[in-house]
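Input sequence (341 aa), recorded before submission:
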Amino acid sequence: MKGKLDERKVAELKEKKEKGLNLVILISISELTELEGTDSAHRYENIRMLTEAGVPAIAYIRPMMPPFNTSEEVIGKIFSQLKEAGCTSAVASGFRGDEALVERLSPDERVQWAMRVKVMPGEIFKRIKKYAEANNIQLFTRTACAVSAATGGERTYNPYYNSPNLVKCTELNCPIQDTCAPLSEPKEGSLELIKRLGFDVEFVPSANGKACGVSGEDRLRCPSCCTTCYFSSNIPHLLVRGNVNLGDLAFIRFTTGMMAMQPGRNDDGSKEIGKITFPDYPEIDNAQALNSWWPLSRNIEKCFGCKYCIVSEYYNETKKNTDVGFPPSELVDRMFAKNKK
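Predicted structure, token format:
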């Protein structure tokens, strides 16, 4: 989030957490005031208030865009202020966009970009890592890893345990690396739900092959999406047949806790890549999933109009604010909506 929290909202979040909600707040930190249309000072204050209230808050240091916010001075300032606010965890990532967006922003030649993958120059990562260590802040390269650690999880929500070089587990001394491993079988009852929804899925318990050796430096050379990697036959996984996209595969993994894959199923560039299509329930048509996220947006009027936003590059050609998704808890109710009538 980029907005400003007040004591009332923080108290509300604290209450929800104390009632059992597995809650974590991601606070955007970038020092890109001119590109974002909102100040940065209140974001550090957000982290301070949340931390003091016992609500996990992770600094979302992104996008890192040379030359706007990647100098020694700016990065040093960011981490110094995070430490002062009581921050203990941060995620850092690069810039994502297409040629038109890069041209509109006119960053210098060191910017590395890709529409679907956030890329950060190695020199910038080293600088961020240096200041994170100096300020005793645990750094992560992936949100899923940071959220898992912040909420007491044993493994990352995304299957990055199979690509340790990519997420730099050892280099960053990830606090959950000793327990982060794939499940040996799907979560109880999850496979039955997936099949009830109409997906053709086979559980493959055998393990053949090697762990992924891809690193952040050569990530773009691999055609497969990391979170639905069809090269990961070395770990227990789910083989999905039929006409599915990455959204379907992400939903299946999100639900079962296991890598779901389909050989050759890559990001085809479609703006509907994250849309979930339930084969036996086509009337449920407002669900999306990417990585381990089930998008649900109701606070759309709070958009700041950031100049680097890529929403319009996906599915929102009208550029008008619209609701996105529905609560996962409503899925089963929607499956039996006809019976209720």
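Checked by second reader. The chain is about 30% helix and 10% strand.
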